[in-house]
Amino acid sequence: VSTQSTGDVTMIGWGTVVHVLLEVAQMAHDQLGVDCEVIDLQTIAPYDAQTIEASVKKTGKAMVVHEAPLTQGFGAEIAARLQEKCFLHLEAPVQRVAGWDTPFPYIYEPFYLPDKWRCLETIKKLMDYM
Predict the structure, then answer these.
(1) Fewest CB within a 10 Å sphere: which of 36, 61, 86, 101?
(2) Quick one: CA dihedral 18, 118, 67, 97, positive or negative?
(3) For residue 95, which of 45, 129, 54 has the smallest C-alpha distance?
(4) What is the DSSP letter of 29?
(5) Distance, CA of 98 to chain centre
(6) Which residue in 6, 25, 3 sits closest to 122, CA to CA?
(7) For 50-60, how does the pLDDT look when each residue is reduced to its tens digit (9 = 90+)?
(8) Mind listing the pLDDT tens digit for each residue in 67-121?
C-alpha cells in the first residue's frame, strides 16, 4: 500500500483509478487547501483493511473510487467495513465514486469511468458536510 499523507480526506482506490486519485489529491491541495491521503490497494482479495481503517480514523472522511458500477461494486464492501469499524470517527458519510449503473458502449468509456472532476466534487461534498 502506498500512501500520500497528512490528511483531511482518505481516498481509496486500486488499479488505473489510482493515477486519477493522485492527480485529484494535488488538485484538492492546490484549489481547496485540502490534504488527501491516497491509499492504493495492491489487491482486493485480500485487501489491507487495517491501513484503510487507520487512515479513516485519522482523517474522519473517506471516499472509495473504482471503475466498476456503483451497485454491487467492491467499493460497497469497503464502505460497509468503514461504517462498521470507524463509525465513531467518521465526520461525514463514506462516499463512493464509481462507474454508472448502466451498460455502455466502449466509445463512451471516458464518460462512464470516474474522472478527476467527479472525484474533486466528492471531496468538496465531504468537506462541506455539516
Answers:
(1) 101
(2) positive
(3) 129
(4) I
(5) 9
(6) 25
(7) 999 999 999 99
(8) 999 999 999 999 999 999 999 999 999 999 999 999 888 899 989 999 999 999 9
